């Protein structure tokens, strides 16, 4: 499953195929002002749990601080 998810990201960002040819999965979510998305490469994904990512973002004073913390955790783990 992990391998397939990484391939989907490669297809989405590096493929010359049309959008109709790419496998997709979607769902509707309610967004509020200030909501943010964090797209993780395999440098974070697999090394840091979803719960740790959520905690780092929740407690950091800025997104930049959260990202610096997550990058440091990833370097320390692998």
Structure write-up:
With 78 residues, the chain is mainly α. The chain has helices spanning 2-14, 50-59, 63-77. The two termini are 21 Å apart. 4% of the residues are buried.
List keywords for this structure.
single chain; 78 residues; disordered N terminus; mainly alpha
Give the % helix. Answer: 40-55%
The poorly predicted ranges are 1-7
State the helix count.
Answer: 3
Radius of gyration: 15 Å
The structural class is mainly alpha
Largest sheet: none
Order of helices and strands: HHH
Mean pLDDT across every amino acid position: 77
Q: Approximately how much beta-strand content do the residues carry?
A: under 5%
N-to-C terminal Cα separation, in Å? 21 Å
Inertia-based shape:
extended
Topology:
Elements: H1 2-14, H2 50-59, H3 63-77
Question: What is this entry, summarized?
Answer:
This protein is an all-alpha fold and 78 residues long.
């Amino acid at each position: 499953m992990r391998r397939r998810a990484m391939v989907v990201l490669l297809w989405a960002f590096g493929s010359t195929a049309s959008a109709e040819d790419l496998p997709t999965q979607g769902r509707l979510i309610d967004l509020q002002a200030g909501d943010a998305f964090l797209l993780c490469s395999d440098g974070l994904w697999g090394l840091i749990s979803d719960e740790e990512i959520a905690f780092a973002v929740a407690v950091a004073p800025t997104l930049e601080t959260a990202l610096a913390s997550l990058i440091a955790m990833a370097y320390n783990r692998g």
